[in-house]
Amino acid sequence: MCKGLSSLPSSCLEKAKEMRVKLSHLADAHHKHKVHDGKVFQDMETLLSTKSGLQVFRGFLRSEFSEENLEFWLACEEYRVSPSKTKASSIYGQFINPDAPQEVNLDAETRESLLAVMDSLCADTFDKAQQRIYSLMAKDSFPRFLRSAHCMEAIKSF
Question: What domain of life does the UniProt record list for this protein's source (predicted)?
């Protein structure tokens, strides 16, 4: 016979309640973030793969004074497709150099490793740095974006 929920330890019941609340929030977020073409602002990859998503996210980052992260990520994408010494120098000068006008937040190790390979460039030269910035946006900026007026307005306009 089933003893019911009362036979479970209270810690299990609390965990179950927490999971139910989290799942409820995820379901609500999923429904709130649908756009006209069936896509959802549910992950960075989807957001960055659409022109409209990119535009809205850029506007949000601009409002938070962190647009340089997206600009760096986009410059790295362009570099990967068409690598050149000129583009690499431009990316380094614009985003990596400690005095760069749009300096991105990279750890010293990543910054130093980039400086070390600037003489022997290849298509994946900026991959590690780009991934760090992508992770930063995905963990920090993107969740705030989903809760922002920018996102809500974009969803309403679609």
Answer: Eukaryota
